[in-house]
Amino acid sequence: MAASLGTQRNSDGIYRAIDIYLDKHRYLTEVEREEVCRVLDCQKMSPEACEHAAKNERFPVRFVVQVLLVAQMQLRDTVTKEVQVFDDKLRREAAEDEEKKGLDEEEVRAEMEKMSIKVMELERECCMMREEIEHTCTHQKSKRGKASMWRKMKRKLGCASSTHDCNCQAKRKKKS
User: Taking every annotated instance into account, which residue ranges of this chain make up the domain NPH3 (predicted)?
Assistant: First the structure.
């Protein structure tokens, strides 16, 4: 970088010297001005010097066109490099996003499996509770069935409604 900077400074210095020479010798023909400019290497000039040379009316048209072509090539190279850097950055970000996405998907899958296992456990518990409830209900129904049969018999016999209060008419009839 330092070497190219030194080369640019030297080329820019030569450009300034030629510019001053052409300014002092305005009577030179186009061919003579082209001959003087042959010592300049446009590719080694700084972008600022190239920009100045492109607008400089003292320089021959052939040299100005050469400067413009070099500037265009430099600009194209710069844009290409910037686009490459940007593309590389996008690719890295996309790869990182894919990696994160893959990790996220794995985490989601693991959580889904945990949830699935928990749901199956809850379903088992629910089935067990349902069976217990059904068993309890059928057991109570059978008890209620006996009790209701007992109540029916008590009513037929004329007993009071409460099981504790058993003033049965059957007992009274026996006493009398």
Answer: 1-74
